[in-house]
Design brief:
single chain, about 850 residues, alpha+beta, six-stranded antiparallel beta sheet, 25 helices, about 55% helix
Length: about 850
């Protein structure tokens, strides 16, 4: 109200000079024009001529001064007309003509002023519409410039730069600032600013969302905060007095993406400001554009980071399987790690005979620093496995990784105090973050891989990547150690009997001379059954197991490459990694059960393939629509532009839903999804879900709700159960390509409540009815007429229902439809 009253008062003040000028012109016309006509009294003209001229004078005065000017001219014309002209004739005629003349004079003034008033009002309305249209076009053009800049931004930093250049320009501001929410949602962290003095930024580099600050308020309420002056700012937020940069107008808007608030945007102005509704709407629109672009850039960066990590792991796996030369392989691995992941990488192993930790490899991108580190390690006293202070010893002893996101200074000081050589070394190294990971073979920890960052902090993704790298390094180290032991101590059968990998020694005739317990566990064949016999006689899968293995000889051990093949055993199918080395007296094979690793790799491949397929389709639609909208060689009709924008919005929402499903599936597997159950009436929940489903269901599908018995009240988490029901309804509609009825049935009894989603669609074969609840599993397209999905919906639904103490099952016959039953405890 204050902001609206001020412009009205200003407008009233601006009209006074205009009225003064108007009356300065109108007064001479209202008095002077009748006076000029009166001069005709010295002539012999008839009454009608001065009467018409007085009328013209009245009209001129009306045009100059409005209705008051016209009436003033009537008064100035009536008396001279009666006195000088009407008195020349008969007195009886004077009354009739005088009355007529007076009426004409008054009507000319009244009607003339009304016509002029309406014309002036129409002209003012037209001018106001033109001004408003020009303002709207200007705002739209500025928003379009911002949208163009954000559309070309690919990385989060490019988005921030675009917002602080084009966004600040579009807002007609002096400076801008962007802060993002921390992972826990409790803090705002300034990530970019422009036009601010850094001495005022540093104290507020990180501030609480709950604080009494304008940006905190905007993020909390998800509404813009508009401050017209510094005085108003200091009054509303006394905590900023003397602590913030002097200024004038201030705008803070929340950055709200598809998943909620992600931060806030600040615009500051060089003068005090008024913020009418149209200016507020522009600032809010800028915040919305910035949030969507920043969220999109984050998703893109996360996807690229995932691709980079998968590429890194593929490269590391290829490197680790390329040779059995332990030293060379580990040096190559450490060099790869410092190139893509850390500043320093070290690999240490435990010398079991002495209990000391031996440093095998240390790597750094700078060869000079690498050489210096090797010299320091050679001079430093050995560390023992029972050293309670040393992180590497602790990791080897416990088998658990150590992740120091920020290395405490106390730890560095204690290390320097304990060893003078370490103290000298620490003067040349800045250790900011560290990860130490165990190298394991089965349950045995035989070494550790350490990653150090000097200039940044490792994050959870780096830690996960390091764990996968250490697992692969452990396999390579163990295979190389086995090969080295087999080459140096072929006779050490007793020692080989206790290794985690299977070891098989064949003589020149191909008969088994050694078959350790690990080989027996892997193949399911006891050593007593295999000794002295050709392996294929007892184990038919042996030929398939060794057929692809390339045998290396003693002179060229680097040619021995592990080959992973599937075999059938009495205990089931297994994946076994095989390495073979031929020597003068026969062949030794090393076997390793990598079924778990293979399952992991298969799950990873399925995930990448599924995610890539599901993400590529909406991305292609968004990309195509955006490219079409950016074309300048054609003029798209407004309807087509709106259609393309709808495509971008809907496909972006689809992308967000897919990413949300993937994240939720991961959270469910990690046990990070909280479920809070309470008494939940299923009927309103089902009605709400059906109303939503009707909006997207084809006309051929009829949705209805059926309830048997009384109220169906379950002990459930309402939000999670709604998500389950939406998933089931979407599946029922999707897999009913020919249409038909889709019903939600509510029943209860015996302390249980059942919610059944039934369709008349394609149905599910009996052999697939349990597999459809597996993560990423999808039916054969031949069975679903090409209908597909991410393979996560039913997995997520069953996991959520299970966490509510219920169950999710399916009954179906191919071609007869399917019924998914959610069974929950009654409240």
């Amino acid at each position: 109200m204050i902001s609206d009253a001020a412009p009205r008062a200003k407008a009233r003040g601006a009209r006074w000079p205009h009225l003064t000028v108007r009356w300065a012109v109108a007064a001479p016309v209202a008095l002077g024009a009748p006076g000029l006509v009166t001069l005709l009294a010295f002539t012999s003209v008839r009454t009608v001529v001065p009467g018409l001229l007085y009328t013209v004078a009245i009209i001129l005065a009306t045009a100059a001064g409005g209705r008051i000017g016209g009436l003033a001219a009537v008064a100035a014309s009536a008396y001279p007309f009666f006195h000088f002209f009407a008195s020349r004739y008969d007195r009886n005629q004077i009354n009739g003509e005088g009355a007529t003349a007076l009426a004409v004079f008054v009507l000319a003034a009244v009607f003339g002023s009304e016509v002029l008033r309406r014309e002036r009002s129409a002209r003012e309305r037209a001018e106001r519409v033109v001004r408003e249209s020009a303002s709207a076009l200007d705002a739209a053009a500025r928003l379009q410039h911002v949208a163009d800049a954000l559309a070309t931004a690919r990385t989060p930093q490019e988005v921030l730069d675009a917002v602080l250049t084009e966004g600040v320009r579009a807002a007609e501001a002096r400076g801008g600032l962007i802060a993002t929410l921390s992972e826990d949602g409790q803090w705002l962290e300034v990530v970019a600013s422009r036009g601010y003095d850094m001495q005022y930024i540093e104290p507020f580099r990180r501030f609480p969302v709950s604080g009494n600050f304008p940006l905190s308020e905007a993020v909390r309420t998800r509404e813009g905060v508009f401050v017209r002056s510094e005085a108003e700012r200091d009054e509303r937020y006394p905590g900023l007095v003397g602590r913030s940069q002097p200024g004038h107008g201030l705008v803070c808007v929340p950055l709200v993406g598809e998943r909620g608030a992600i931060g806030g945007l600040v615009f500051s102005f060089p003068t005090d400001q008024e913020f009418p509704p149209e200016r507020r709407a522009l600032k809010v629109a800028l915040g919305r554009q910035a949030a969507i672009a920043l969220e999109r850039a984050w998703f893109s960066a996360a996807e690229q980071a995932l691709r980079d990590r998968l590429s890194f792991l593929d490269e590391a796996t290829a490197l680790l399987t390329s040779s059995l030369d332990l030293q060379r392989t580990l040096e190559s691995l450490a060099s790869l790690a410092v190139e893509r992941l850390a500043d320093w990488c070290a690999i240490d192993v435990l010398v079991e005979a002495t209990g000391e930790i031996e440093g095998l490899v240390v790597a750094h991108p700078d060869p000079k620093r690498k050489k210096w580190a090797e010299e320091v390690r050679a001079r430093t006293r050995p560390t023992r496995i029972d050293d309670d202070f040393d992180l590497t010893a602790r990791v080897m002893r416990t088998g658990e990784p150590e992740f120091l996101r920020q290395v405490p200074q106390e730890l560095i000081d204690e290390a320097a105090r304990r060893d003078p050589e370490a103290a000298a070394a620490l003067e040349h190294i800045s250790i900011r973050s560290a990860i130490t990971l165990p190298l394991r073979a089965g349950e045995r920890t035989f070494g550790a891989l350490t990653l150090i960052a000097e200039h940044r902090e490792f994050d959870n993704a780096d830690f996960a990547l390091g764990q996968q790298l250490s697992a692969r390094a452990a396999i390579a180290v163990e295979n190389a150690r086995l090969y080295r032991e087999a080459e140096r101590r072929a006779e050490a059968a007793l020692a080989l009997a206790y290794v985690g990998d299977g070891v098989v020694l064949l003589d020149e005739d191909g008969r088994v001379r050694f078959w350790n317990s690990a080989a027996a566990a892997i193949t399911g064949v006891r050593e007593s059954d295999m000794a002295g016999r050709v392996p294929v006689e007892v184990l038919p899968a042996w030929e398939e197991l060794t057929r692809l293995a390339e045998l290396a000889d003693a002179e060229t051990p680097e040619r021995a490459r592990p080959v992973t093949v599937p075999i059938e055993t009495a205990a089931g199918d297994r994946w076994v990694a095989v390495t073979g080395v031929a020597f003068d007296e026969g062949v030794v094979y090393a076997l390793r059960d990598v079924s778990d690793e293979q399952a992991f790799e298969r799950a990873r491949s399925d995930f990448v393939a599924t995610a890539s397929h599901e993400l590529r389709t909406p991305l292609a639609a968004v990309y195509g629509a955006a490219r079409t909208l950016r074309r300048t060689d054609i003029e798209l009709p407004a309807e087509q532009r709106d259609r393309f924008l709808e495509i971008i919005v809907s496909e972006t929402e689809r992308l967000t839903a897919i990413v949300s499903q993937i994240l939720l599936a991961g959270q469910l597997e990690e046990g990070r999804v909280d479920v809070s159950t309470s008494a939940t009436d299923l009927r309103p929940l089902a009605e709400s879900a059906l109303d939503s489903a009707r909006l997207r269901a084809p006309e051929s599908v009829e949705l209805r709700l059926e309830q048997n018995g009384g109220r169906a009240v379950a002990l459930a988490d309402e939000d999670k159960l709604r998500q389950v029901l939406v998933n089931l309804l979407d599946n029922a509609i999707k897999y009913s390509p020919d249409g038909g009825d889709v019903s939600v049935e509510l029943t209860g009894g015996a302390g249980r409540v059942r919610l059944t989603v039934r369709d008349r669609g394609l149905g599910i074969p009996m052999s697939e009815q349990e597999r459809i609840f597996e993560k990423f599993y999808r039916l054969d397209p031949a069975l679903t007429r090409g209908v597909g999905g991410s393979g996560l919906g039913l997995f997520i639904s069953r996991e959520l229902v299970s966490r509510m103490g219920g169950s999710l099952t399916v009954r179906s016959e191919p071609g007869e439809g399917a019924a998914f039953v959610v069974d929950l405890p009654a409240a």
